[in-house]
Amino acid sequence: MCSRFVPTNKSLREPASRGKIWVKPTDQMDLWLDSQGYYRKHTAKDGSCLYRAISEQIFLAQAFHLDVRRQCAEFAHRHPELLSSVSHCSVDEYVDQMKHPHELGGKVELQVMSLMFRKDFL
């Protein structure tokens, strides 16, 4: 499951703010995060989880993950030197694979988006 850790904001955890009831975590990781003032933000289990996480960090919403994917592919196409570590296919083939919505993103895509958005992603 793709997820990320978000600082806890008590106002966001109240039922009136989110429209649903907040349930106290029972998973060990969730309990530890809660003790540190964080909670786990769940992300859809699909090939776009990396792009969803980046979209939420940049645009504060996962809904823009397809735009983030497209921008990543276009940026990589304009800067083929970023794909020098990819040896199993041509740059054009790799960029075409990146555009597919169910294709998983990895280290290469994370590096491309880091340069594209001028952000460090951990």
Automatic annotation (TrEMBL):
Xref: SUPFAM superfamilies: Cysteine proteinases
GO term, biological process aspect, one: protein deubiquitination
Residue span, OTU domain: 38-122
Entry GO MF terms: cysteine-type deubiquitinase activity
Domain of life: Eukaryota
InterPro entries: OTU_dom, OTU_OTU, Papain-like_cys_pep_sf, Peptidase_C85-like
PROSITE patterns in alphabetical order: OTU
Pfam families in the record: OTU
Name of the featured protein: OTU domain-containing protein
